[in-house]
Fold this protein.
Amino acid sequence: MYILAVVFWFFSFRKARGLSEKQIPLMASLTAMFFAAQMMNYPIVGGTTAHLLGGPILAITLGPYLGVISMTIILLIQALFFGDGGITTFGANVWNMGIVGTFVPFMIYRLTPHITSTQRGKFAGVFLGALMADVLAALCAGLELGLSSTFPYGVPIAAAAMVTHHAIIGVGEGVITVGIILALQKARPDLLQLPKLAPSWLGGS
């Protein structure tokens, strides 16, 4: 998982050179917001926990590459200063929340205009992207936990527990993501027009 994370770090940090004066404070504000949100964990069946991710809003406003960097910062601080996650699982956490959690919602968001051009359809894409990001990131975590030789539960219990609870959280994540986009659209529409740092095949800059 570290090897996969390193590949995405390479492209993310290379793309992040020369960020604009508008991108940096927005990235910092959203990173701080979801750092706090992720610290609110609650235990679930299967020996693990559930929480909001934050990757969807980072990806949709700034692009998945900056989302990867923000989520990496969040997870690193949690691991080093709060004992949440740990260094040995850092690569897996970055893959789940930083990569799956940002690229999935961005891809769904980018696909939405090809399906519908209405404002309601656009926000449906934002909501669905956030929901699927949570579910798929949770599925990855459940598989990793279930396959671990040190974890007391197998794949069926770990994956089912993670996906079930994060499907519920994903609804909340979708609502929050849509709410932030609506707020930005009303108060600072210019921030939604910032370049999205993503692979060229996803329409990024």
In short: The chain has one domain: 2-13+22-192.
